[in-house]
């Protein structure tokens, strides 16, 4: 565990790597979603398997989340992309990296690819999309609703009863983030990339959706927008694919990385890849 200063932001960073002493097969940056998410999500899903396969795995908590500092303002999308840029610069990671983004984390990944195309080797976007006017309008509604309801004790009690105490604690923390910062107003006011900037993203993209997710219908649009994009669907899943179907996501991720040049190591990695293509 480490804390790094990113242009005045105290950022919580975790890094896992191969234990065999050999150079890593590739560098993968894992980007989590908004509000109830943090880098901890990846500890129970992707990160250990990726490190065991010989990859350099970099995770960090977004501003306001997890153990990273929570400034009262500064939560537009471009600020999150700035943080990712600063982190890569601070760690002197100059070569192209693979980005894996869950939900809002994928939106940050697309933001970096539009800004620094030479530094992004590929994107695996889990239940995610690039920022657009429609995205901003949708997030405005979601965040305003969350800001209102997560301040209500009856809502938190319902979450505890229906989803368990751990989820209720995450919901309470999300409510505190919304109440104590400008995030709910900043995200919809983000500087949005022009469609031409998104079309200029040339790196390969794999978009992963749950078949029951409200994002699944956008697959055809995203495939048509980006130069090298394909979509895959996880049966029976909604938005929480990463948490609800971690074995499937691990297999898809390892297969994707191997397909795009990562020399994965270990029998577990081979088995995960074989499972994904059956």
UniProtKB/TrEMBL annotation:
UniProt-recorded Gene Ontology molecular function terms: hydrolase activity
Pfam families reported for this sequence: Abhydrolase_1
Stored Gene3D superfamilies: alpha/beta hydrolase (3.40.50.1820)
Iron-sulfur is among the record's keywords: no
Keyword Hydrolase: yes
Keywords in alphabetical order: Hydrolase
Residue ranges constituting the AB hydrolase-1 domain according to the UniProt record: 27-145
Protein name: Alpha/beta hydrolase
Organism encoding this protein: Kitasatospora kazusensis
Taxonomic lineage: Bacteria, Bacillati, Actinomycetota, Actinomycetes, Kitasatosporales
